[in-house]
Specification:
single chain; 135 residues; mainly alpha; Four Helix Bundle (Hemerythrin (Met), subunit A); 4 helices; 2 strands; 77% helix; elongated
Amino acid sequence: MIHYPSTHALHTEEGTKDLKHYFAYLAAKTVCRLRIDLTLLRSNPTDPVLLGQFTERLENLASNSVSWGFQDIHRLAQALLRVMLDLRSGIQSWDHSTAQVLADGLDVLGTLVYDHENEVHRRSAVIRLLNSLTQ
């Protein structure tokens, strides 16, 4: 589940922030951090700390996305997590193609999160417009 100390950000000057928008924000932040971790892993693929951090972040993203009902994000994060678990257990070796699969997966995850965030904004705009028309 979400292990971010910044969950207090739900209470900003905007009042009650849309929780799905907040999830999209955290997911986008996580994908950015995963990209940084992947860059570090490319230069040191045997570092157990980096492997552990990357795997944990990916696992949290997968877990949180299923909690919020975002199946595409969940399925892709789970598939990338399987690759990481295979790397950690030695079933799969680290090479250029593995790094590229992870990079491509993170790109697609980033796109899915971005699309989700846009959908949340679109729905909020429609609701605001409908509410203003009924007043």
